[in-house]
Design brief:
Length: about 250
C-alpha cells in the first residue's frame, strides 16, 4: 500500500530546514506531528520527600533541557539561591547553551560533554570530591546510575519531573499510513489511549532497540526501523520505505 499520511509522535520541528519538511516536499506526503508523551514537574514537597536538600550539593549533572528547567524551578519553589560557586556538568553543548537561560555563562563553572553521558565521565572523574546531584525524570536510562556508581563519586538521583502519557482521544477516528515512535513511552501512550488498537494496514516505524522491543512485546508489527547502517536517521528510513512502496 502506498504511503500518503504519516503521524510522528513528537512535537513539530521548530527549524525550517528540518529533514521532515524535505520529506514532505520530495515525496509528496502529509506529515502531522503530535507528542504522545509530555513532561510534568513534580512538586518541591515531592522532591523534599526524596530527602533532597539543594544546599548539600556542590555540583549538578544536567542530561537534558528538561533537567535544567526543573532544577531551577524547584530551586525557586524551595527559595534556594543557587550559589555562584555551583558547578554544572552538562551532557552536551545544547544543554550547556540552554543553561544560559538561568545563569550568566561566563561567570559560572560549566563543564560540557560531547553528546553521550559516557563522554561526560572524564570531567566528572576529574572532580571526584564534589557532591553531585542528578535531577532527572522518573524514566532514567540505567546506564547513567551504573556509570556514576563505577566512578565511585558521591552522587544522588532525584526525580524532578515525570514522563506522562498525553491525551490523544481526538485521534480516535483518524487514520494514518505510518505511525512513528522514538521511545517505549510512545508505544505505551498509543496502547493506553487506544487499548483496542488494531494495526491492520498501518505501518509502524520505530527508532532505537528499546522502542523496537517495546513494540514487538506489545504484539505490534514493526515495518520500518532506524538507525541502520543504510538509514542512520528516521527521515532517511521513512524516505527509503516510501520510495519503495509508492513507486509500485
Amino acid at each position: 500500500m502506498k504511503v500518503k499520511t504519516i503521524l510522528v509522535s513528537q512535537p513539530e520541528p521548530k527549524v525550517e530546514n528540518s529533514p521532515y519538511f524535505d520529506l514532505i516536499e520530495k515525496q509528496k506526503v502529509k506529515i502531522d506531528f503530535r507528542p504522545f508523551i509530555h513532561v510534568e514537574g513534580v512538586s518541591s514537597k515531592e522532591v523534599r520527600s526524596q530527602k533532597v536538600d539543594l544546599g548539600d550539593y556542590s555540583a549538578i549533572i544536567l542530561t537534558s533541557r528538561n533537567a535544567v528547567d526543573h532544577f531551577f524551578r524547584i530551586a525557586e519553589e524551595m527559595r534556594f539561591k543557587v550559589p555562584d560557586s555551583m558547578k554544572y556538568f552538562c551532557q552536551s553543548e545544547a544543554v550547556a547553551y540552554y543553561l544560559q537561560k538561568y545563569v550568566v555563562y561566563r561567570k559560572r563553572k560549566i563543564y560540557v560533554g560531547k553528546r553521550t553521558f559516557q563522554e561526560l565521565t572524564p570531567l566528572i572523574k576529574k572532580y571526584k570530591t564534589e557532591k553531585f546531584l542528578l535531577p532527572s525524570s522518573d524514566k532514567l536510562k540505567p546506564e547513567v546510575p551504573n556509570i556514576l556508581d563505577e566512578l565511585t563519586v558521591n552522587w544522588k538521583k532525584a526525580t524532578f519531573y515525570k514522563t506522562v502519557v498525553s491525551d490523544l482521544s481526538d485521534l480516535r477516528d483518524v487514520y494514518y499510513d505510518i505511525l512513528v515512535f522514538f521511545s517505549p513511552s510512545g508505544i505505551k501512550s498509543l496502547l493506553e489511549n487506544f487499548p483496542d488498537f488494531k494495526q491492520n494496514e498501518t505501518r509502524i516505524a520505530v527508532f532505537g532497540n528499546t522502542t523496537i522491543q517495546a513494540a514487538t512485546d506489545n504484539g505490534l508489527r514493526v515495518d520500518i526501523k532506524a538507525p541502520t547502517p543504510d538509514t542512520p536517521s528516521m527521515t532517511m528510513a521513512l524516505e527509503k520505505y516510501i520510495k519503495a512502496v509508492n513507486k509500485k
